[in-house]
Amino acid sequence: MPELRDIRHGYVLPNGTRREVLQGIDLKLDKGGFYVLLGRSGCGKSTLLRLMAGLEIPDAGQFEHAGESVGVVFQEPRLMPWLTVAQNAGFLLGSKLAGHEIDLRVSRALKMVGLHDVRDAWPNQLSGGMAQRVAIARALVVQPALLLMDEPFGALDAFTRKQMQDDLVRIWRELGHTIVFVTHDLEEAVRLGQTILVIDQGCFTLRLDLDAAYPRTGAEPAINSARQRLLDRLFACPNSNS
């Protein structure tokens, strides 16, 4: 199982002082779990995700995932405008697989995110929600055991965001990935997470295991109780230096 052990990380500010971003993060991820990292901007949650993705190296500690494949979805789709939807979705596979296998994986991923009919479209022909679906498909084609998502719906309108949340839950339940999802939106956290981890000033300050069936309306008793606990914790946290 993927596991974070005493992860510590920081950086030096222009004035020469050092800011510690993560201060001893420990977390063992259960296979197939949906984990949400919740906190204010600047609290360290996106930094933690980047470390897990291998985009940065921690100052101390280890992230062990036994060589399992990792997929990443960012807030911005980051599509290449000179490639079609299908080409963007399959870009990470490069020459690693035979062409027919790439086509198979791309077709399966695009069907899963509801974009198979626009596989030959260009990025400038897509809505924001459609572009983010391509980004999710691009992460799915590598068949990741662990899917990391950094506020992927943050730039979407409310209606599209809710639809994308529902679609993500459907994909997760169908494929069984372990997901780590970063957000600063409490309502998004309680709609999606099995385990919600509040992070503030580089530390986990609350772990909340949420036993509520999907799909969630947000009005379930378990959700209301979780929402209140999270609000209490978030308002108790000092402001981050974002």
From TrEMBL:
Keyword match Transmembrane: no
Q: Which domain of life is it from?
A: Bacteria
Q: What is this protein called?
A: Putative aliphatic sulfonates import ATP-binding protein SsuB
What keywords were assigned to this record? ATP-binding, Cell membrane, Membrane, Nucleotide-binding, Translocase, Transport
Would you identify the family this protein belongs to, as annotated?
Belongs to the ABC transporter superfamily.
List the SMART domains hit by this protein, alphabetically. AAA (SM00382)
* Lineage of origin: Bacteria, Pseudomonadati, Pseudomonadota, Betaproteobacteria, Burkholderiales
Quote the InterPro entries the UniProt record gives. AAA+_ATPase, ABC_transporter-like_ATP-bd, ABC_transporter-like_CS, ABC_transporter_ATP-bind, P-loop_NTPase
List, alphabetically, the SUPFAM superfamilies matched: P-loop containing nucleoside triphosphate hydrolases
Matching entries from PROSITE patterns are given as: ABC_TRANSPORTER_1 (PS00211), ABC_TRANSPORTER_2 (PS50893)
Keyword Nucleotide-binding carried by entry: yes
Recorded GO molecular functions are: ATP binding; ATP hydrolysis activity
Q: Which residues form the ABC transporter domain?
A: 7-226
